[in-house]
Amino acid sequence: MTDVNPLRADAQRNRERILAAAEEVFLERGAGASLEDVAKRAGVGIGTLYRRFPTREELLAAAYSDRFLSFAQASRERSAGLDPASAVRSYLEELVLNTIVYRGLAVSLGTVLEVGTPGCHATSAEGVRLLDQAQKAGVIRSDITFDDLVYVATATCLAVERDDSPKSRIAHWIDLFLNGISVQNGSRNSMDTMNSE
């Protein structure tokens, strides 16, 4: 859900305070942190918080929107120098790395991306674009959907979010998935062929 009408100055200030507090609390305690703690840190009542953000997912999406916007822009720029399969791999790896910034966000990732903030739209649109590009290039099966990518990102996040150095494990999990959805090319799949070059 996105804001359509401009907010009064006091309402806008409250919204900004809530988002700043949410960023702090979610970074400290994870995505499952108490919303009462967010309201208290923002200096507003819990009713004010719920008027602006009726669900936890809407608050998470709003707090994360700028981060998602930056992620989507970086992915678009990075993909210009990558083949379609590598672009999807890079997107998934970076989506996981961005998601685990808030511990526990993974369990709500699919719902959060559907909220409709600019960052959520940009992240989803970028994933759809890269998947479509890889399918048209014949390197990813045509029956794979963007939702499938989100499920894999979620599973990977859950598998690695407690690791001290998750980057290599993320690459391993993403490779397992991509090897499973690649279009077969003789006895070896196209991802294996690409990796051997």
Question: How does the SSE layout of this entry go?
Answer:
Blueprint: H1 9-29, H2 35-42, H3 46-52, H4 56-79, H5 84-99, H6 109-113, H7 118-136, H8 146-160, H9 167-181, E1 184-185, E2 188-189, H10 190-196
Antiparallel strand pairs: 1-2
Number of H- or I-type helical stretches: 10
Number of strands: 2
Number of domains: 2
CATH superfamily of the largest domain: Tetracycline Repressor, domain 2
Spatial order of strands in the largest sheet: 1-2
Query: What is the percentage of strand-forming residues?
Result: under 5%
Shape annotation: elongated
DNA-binding region: 34-53
InterPro entries: Homeodomain-like_sf, HTH-type_TetR-like_transc_reg, HTH_TetR, Tet_transcr_reg_TetR-rel_C_sf, TetR_SbtR-like_C
Domain HTH tetR-type: 12-71
Keywords: DNA-binding, Transcription, Transcription regulation
